[in-house]
């Protein structure tokens, strides 16, 4: 163990066993999920509750040492790894799950609880979390709130922000702010809960969350639908949205992405023919929605082929084609990852323009696109382009901005997109954000270099 005065205070706060200084152990916290972003931590500290987090942050503030926060380390914008020399605060031990309030459909959970653990706790009670995505076994609710994660159910329930009714958090000087009553109506001034959601660990360390829960619908049906192109996908989703109140998810991927997924996972072809584009949709309600889904697909425009599953195994098998994209892409190499959104009417033009835009920045690049179609949210993953990462990022993000889009739809800005923030936010907005950061963290100690420089 490093014998500095700060380390002594950290040991007093969390106990010797939870201050990690062995370089071999610390190394496992220093690289992000994609393998692209790295940082050297001074040490890793693993507090067990809010009071311990407050003691750690206070000690770091007194020593003027930055604190970087890490949950499940599944973030995709380089924000979950430390800056060199920082104390890395892991939320891995903040894992309490409170009693489920079935009447209000709410639960209070520790920030380090994984999404899957909350699902496991509330589903037997007929309740569910309104956000879901493939990293569920590793990502934490604290990380989801900090990034305002989106995922596969935004169409029905909105982003994580809509699920967070309260937070407890530790500010940069060690002050604890606790707002966990979960009142659906509470107009008593600035919305500090909402401010912390999406702040990417730059304004405070979330230690607990009060989550809104949604009904767990027992009737479910998933369809994988082959379509001609992005315009066909958008038209299909529009029709299904109008015809199916039970529509919960609408995901888009393309032939080259499916080829890669099948190569890396060994999954069988979903159809006898290879089609240009695919939309995966899920409906959920009390009764089995299969007949309604089939009827809607019968009337919807541009359906080239479709397969529907209502049983759990069949549904998971269809979801695997979509959810395996991220891991399959990483298995093919470290990608340049972009997560953009454009207004839905521009989605088709944007998808058509992207290959040429990317090729102009890196002729050898191999783009794989997929995303959440209803929100115009595209995941632009570019393989074989790491040595031209910045020109590729710049070309794609400027294209997206030209459509009035967002340079980060759901993963956050992190360190990866910081240089392009002005493409999505006005100078006045950025100055307002800087003002908030200065007010809450004047020393710039929390997650330095994330979101703002
Ligand atoms: P981390 O990666 O540890 O941290 C992410 C950010 O949050 C960092 O800035 C960190 O400092 C901050 N942070 C973490 N915990 C706290 C806390 N308690 N208080 C304050 N700040 C904190 N994202 C989506 O939006 N939609 C998707 O569909 C989606 N799918 C994914 C699929 C895969 C396979 C993978 C690997 C990732 C996916 N992601 C998705 C990205 C990622 O899972 C989310 O951003 C997730 O919310 C991060 O949670 P985490 O606990 O891993 O956070
Ligand atoms: C997804 O929707 O699967 C994710 O956001 C992950 C990714 O972009 O790779
Ligand atoms: Zn996504």
Layout of SSEs?
Elements (H helix, E strand, L loop, with lengths): L4 H10 L4 E2 L2 H4 L14 E5 L4 H14 L3 E4 L15 E5 L15 E5 L4 H8 L4 E3 L11 H7 L6 H4 L6 E7 L5 E4 L12 H5 L8 E11 L3 E9 L2 H14 L3 E8 H11 L11 E9 L4 H10 L5 E5 L2 H12 L1 H8 L3 E6 L5 H15 L4 E7 L4 E7 L5 H14 L24 H14 L13
Parallel strand pairs: 2-4, 3-4
Antiparallel strand pairs: 1-2, 5-9, 6-9, 7-8, 7-9, 10-12, 10-13, 11-12, 11-15, 14-16, 15-16
Helix pairs in contact: 1-3, 9-12, 13-14
The chain binds flavin-adenine dinucleotide, D-malate (MLT) and zinc ion.
The site of flavin-adenine dinucleotide has 35 residues, from β3, α5 and β9.
Can I get a quick summary?
The chain has 15 helices and 16 strands. With 453 residues, the protein is of the alpha+beta class.
DSSP, total strands? 16
Roughly how many Å is the radius of gyration?
Answer: 22 Å
Percentage of residues assigned to helices:
25-40%
Q: Kindly, what is the distance between the CA atoms of the first and last residues, rounded to a whole number of angstroms?
A: 31 Å
Bound molecules: flavin-adenine dinucleotide, D-malate, zinc ion
Instruction: List segments where confidence is low: pLDDT < 50 over at least 5 consecutive residues.
Output: none
User: Averaging pLDDT over every residue, what do you get?
Assistant: 98
Strand order of the largest sheet: 13-10-12-11-15-16-14
Query: Helices and strands: which structural class?
Result: alpha+beta
């Amino acid at each position: 163990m490093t014998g500095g005065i700060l380390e002594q205070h950290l040991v007093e706060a969390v106990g010797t066993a939870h201050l990690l200084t062995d370089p071999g152990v610390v190394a496992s916290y220093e690289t992000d999920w994609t393998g692209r972003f790295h940082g050297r931590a001074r040490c890793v500290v693993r507090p067990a509750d809010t009071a311990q987090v407050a003691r750690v942050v206070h000690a770091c503030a007194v020593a003027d040492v930055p604190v970087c926060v890490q949950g499940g380390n599944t973030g995709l914008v380089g924000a979950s790894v430390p800056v060199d020399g920082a104390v890395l605060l892991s939320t891995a031990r903040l894992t309490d799950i409170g009693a489920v309030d079935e009447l209000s459909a709410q639960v209070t959970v520790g920030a380090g609880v994984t999404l899957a653990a909350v699902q496991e706790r509330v589903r037997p009670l007929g309740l569910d979390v309104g956000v879901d995505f493939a990293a569920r076994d590793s990502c934490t609710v604290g990380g989801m709130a900090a990034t305002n994660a989106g995922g596969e159910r935004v169409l029905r329930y909105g982003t994580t922000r809509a699920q967070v009714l309260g937070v407890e958090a530790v500010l940069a000087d060690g002050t604890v702010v606790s707002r966990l009553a979960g009142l659906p109506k509470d107009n008593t001034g600035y919305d500090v809960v909402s401010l912390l959601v999406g702040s990417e660990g730059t304004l405070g360390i979330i230690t607990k969350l009060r989550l809104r829960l949604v009904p767990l619908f027992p009737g479910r049906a998933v369809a994988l639908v082959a379509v001609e192109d992005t315009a066909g996908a958008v038209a299909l989703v529009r029709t299904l949205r109008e015809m199916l109140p039970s529509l919960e998810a609408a995901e888009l991927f393309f032939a080259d992405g499916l080829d890669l997924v099948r190569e890396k996972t060994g999954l069988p072809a979903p159809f006898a023919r290879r089609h240009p584009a695919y939309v995966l949709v899920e409906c959920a309600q009390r009764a089995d929605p299969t007949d309604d889904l089939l009827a809607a697909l019968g009337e919807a425009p541009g359906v080239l082929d479709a397969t529907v599953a209502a049983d759990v195994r069949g549904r998971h098998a269809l979801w695997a084609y979509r959810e395996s994209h991220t891991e399959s892409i990483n298995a093919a190499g470290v990608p340049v990852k972009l997560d953009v959104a454009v207004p839905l009417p521009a989605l088709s033009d944007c998808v058509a323009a992207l290959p040429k835009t990317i090729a102009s920045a890196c002729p050898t690049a191999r783009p794989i696109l997929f995303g959440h179609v209803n929100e115009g949210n595209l995941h632009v993953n570019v393989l074989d382009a790491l040595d031209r990462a910045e020109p590729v990022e710049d070309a794609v993000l400027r294209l997206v901005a030209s459509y009035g889009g967002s340079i980060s739809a759901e993963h956050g800005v992190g360190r990866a997109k910081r240089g392009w923030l002005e493409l999505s936010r006005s100078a006045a907005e950025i100055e307002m954000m800087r003002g908030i950061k200065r007010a809450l963290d004047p020393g710039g100690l929390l997650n330095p270099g994330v979101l703002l420089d």
